[in-house]
What we know:
By secondary structure, the protein is mainly beta. It is built from one helix and eight strands. The chain has one helix at 62-66; strands at residues 18-23, 31-32, 44-48, 56-59, 72-74, 79-82, 91-94, 100-105. The strands form two sheets. The protein has a four-stranded antiparallel β-sheet, with no helix packed on it. The longest helix is centred in the middle third of the chain and has 5 residues, at 62-66. It is globular, with a radius of gyration of 17 Å.
Amino acid sequence: TNAPLAIYVRDPKPNSWAASQKNVTAAGTAEQCAAAAAGHNQKVTVRARASNTGDAFLGTSAANAQNATTRISLPPGEAVTINVDNANRIWVDVTTSGNGVDLHVG
């Protein structure tokens, strides 16, 4: 006998999103972003604030965000979209204390 074939389809449209900010207290000391889970087919977009007076740096760890050969550099106002399951996998460093990034999960 042939058993029926079950097909499951996930909705490709995200049903929720979140926005947050991350300010770095001390330049040269990377800080972890707050937890914000990204659902199926969602990504995290990180934008260096246009008001920053220097670049923001992203990494997968504090060490990577602080290392010029392993980090992603974002000049003020620039953004990058990253495929991660949670914003807390992103670490941020800056060239000027108090500068930061805006995050959008969705």
